[in-house]
Design brief:
Shape: globular
Strand order of the largest sheet: 3-2-1-4-5-7-6
CATH topology of the largest domain: Rossmann fold
Largest sheet: 7 strands, mixed
Helix content: 40-55%
Distance between the termini: 44 Å
CATH class of the largest domain: Alpha Beta
Number of strands: 7
Order of helices and strands: HEHEHEHEHHHHHHHHEHEHE
CATH superfamily of the largest domain: Vaccinia Virus protein VP39
């Protein structure tokens, strides 16, 4: 029996189109989750191959069952940041496309016991891989300054210092163990007049802790260059982001890859030898009004694509 792992992929048609899939190509879905994008990719392959990667063991169980119908699919339990070793282990040199759909899946958010959501009471976990240091470990062991720095750095929460101070005060009474305990601390750390701005008052703090727990931004930044290296000429890197911090990393890296000659304009010939590595089929795409109405969680998503030259 397949466990209930539901994830509504955002910008679905736009994403599949952006991969520019060749029936005989080799593709890697670095965040396969419940297999929504992966299934659509596999259906477009004939003699090609698809590598489905996810770090979440629950997702891997689902993928092994849902993708079994496709002979062209290989499921790998790993993190997309390790793309070079993943491909090397499979004896693959270059591929024709990479997709990463960043952020938390609907399954992870809606499955209360994973501890990602501030709407349900559950152990304060937030580990996508179910391994390593949890959010509870962070809030109960880090110093007030370290907590404030994380909350500010990864969410730009204006009241990060107040939240960190109250976390430390509360844990001196008893350890902070559940999502609702933390959400309540965050709530009373923010002035009443500001709580109604920008959604749930705990949203930014939970985002910051989740990013720190999973090392999301560091892994993304380190992985982008490796992904480009792994592409064949005309291969495409397709990225869906969900908040400004990760989108900024992708936007700036794509821009740097587009840079050509940096010689002064009065030089008669180029001596720097720099050439653009990619071209951008479009600047970015956002969800349509229809998608926003159907799936409110898509509201902050951005689709960016780089094609290797």
């Amino acid at each position: 029996m397949i466990m209930e792992f539901v994830h509504k992929p955002v910008l679905f048609d736009e994403t599949i189109d952006a991969l520019n899939i060749k029936p005989d190509g080799i593709y890697l879905d670095g965040t396969s989750g419940g297999g929504g994008h992966s299934s659509a990719i596999a259906q477009r392959l004939t003699s090609g191959r698809l590598i489905c990667v996810d770090q979440d063991p629950d997702a891997i169980k689902v993928l092994n069952e849902r993708m079994a119908q496709f002979k062209c699919v290989t499921v790998v339990h790993n993190n997309f940041a390790n793309i070079k070793s993943i491909l090397n282990n499979l004896g693959i040199d270059k591929i024709d496309g990479v997709l990463i759909d960043l952020g938390v899946s609907s399954f992870q958010l809606d499955n209360a016991e994973r501890g990602f959501s501030f709407h349900n009471d559950a152990p304060l976990d937030m580990r996508m891989s179910k391994e390593g240091i949890s959010a509870a470990d962070l809030v109960n062991t880090l110093s007030e300054k370290e907590l404030a720095d994380i909350i500010w750095k990864y969410s730009e929460e204006k009241f990060a210092r107040s939240i960190a101070r109250n976390i430390v005060k509360q844990r001196e009474i008893k350890p902070i163990e559940t999502t609702l305990e933390l959400a309540e601390i965050v709530k009373y750390s923010i002035p009443a007049a500001k709580r109604r701005e920008g959604g749930h008052p705990a949203r930014r703090t939970f985002q910051a802790l989740r990013i720190e727990v999973n090392g999301e931004l560091d892994k993304l930044s380190n992985a982008l260059d490796d992904m480009l290296d792994c592409l064949n000429p005309n291969g495409r890197l397709v990225v869906i982001t969900f908040h400004s911090l990760e989108d900024r990393i992708v936007k700036q890296r794509f821009a740097s890859w587009c840079e050509g000659c940096t010689c002064p304009r009065d030089f008669p010939v180029c001596v720097c030898g720099k050439k653009p590595k990619v071209k951008l089929p479009f600047k970015f795409k956002s969800p349509s009004d229809e998608e926003l109405e159907e799936n409110p969680r898509s509201r902050s998503s951005r689709l960016r694509v780089a094609e290797k030259i």
